[in-house]
Amino acid sequence: MIRRVSFSDQIVELHEIWDYYETMHNSLRNYLGGIRNNAIIDNKFTGMTATELEQYFDEKFDELECQTSLVILSSVEAKFRMDYLQRVYKRYRDDLSREFRILYNTKLNKASLEDEILEIWKKYCPSYKIVVSDYKGALKFRHWLAHDRYWIPKFGRKYDLDTVYHIAEKVYVNLPFVI
User: Fold this and answer.
1) Spacing of C-alpha 118 from chain mean position
2) Angle between the N-to-C axes of helices 50-89 and 95-107, in degrees from 0 to 180, rounded to the nearest 10
3) To the nearest whole number, what is the mean pLDDT of the chain?
4) Is the dihedral angle over the CA atoms 37, 38, 41, 47 positive or is it negative?
């Protein structure tokens, strides 16, 4: 018997991810401001020059952006995967859903996001091809982030938090997900 994937109730929405990012960013800014004004004393920073302190916090801001980008791209992946499974489980009658059922018959819930699910989206929903392709391109950035950035990336374009957020937003706003 084939077991269905049980969906959790812990899905984090894009606006919640962004709210978390802004909260953490503001916290870092306030922490840095407190250290600069001597309102916060932390022995970790004793003896650091102003330049070293700035560099330290610039690295923390960069890391926060990388981690937030990873979470955003992962949340979009979850949305695509949940949509794929819902279309199969609920037996929707559109061409996209029919093609997903064919894929599910061989791959079950192990279908490749990049090579199968996204390609089927592009084939059966050509009006969303650019949005899906933009997300697919960003997956290279996601893989780099998820695998601890150990290689020198060649993405073909620059990815940063703003770019990733806008790509995710386009996916969420434009694609007709059934979930």
Assistant:
1) 15
2) 100
3) 96
4) positive
Contact at 8 Å (CB) between 110 and 49?
Answer: no
Taking only the tens place, the pLDDT of each residue in 126-158 is 999 999 999 999 999 999 999 999 999 999 899
Mean pLDDT across 81-86:
97
Q: Where are the domains of the chain?
A: 15-174
Rounded Cα distance, 112 and 74, in Å: 14
CA-to-CA distance for 62 and 54, rounded, in angstroms?
Answer: 12
Length reported for the chain: 179
- Alpha-carbon distances, residue 10 vs 20, 75, 136 (angstroms): 15, 11, 24
Q: pTM of the full predicted structure?
A: 0.94
**Distance in angstroms (rounded) separating the CA atoms of residues 103 and 120:** 9
**DSSP string spanning 50-77?**
HHHHHHHHHHHHHHHHHHHHHHHHHHHH
Largest CA distance in the chain: 67
Return the amino acid letter for 44: K
Determine the pLDDT at residue 9. Answer: 87
DSSP tally for the chain: helices H, then strands E: 6, 0
Computed from CA positions of residues 62, 64, 70, 76, in that sequence, does the dihedral angle turn out positive or negative? negative
pLDDT cut 90: percent of the chain above it: 94
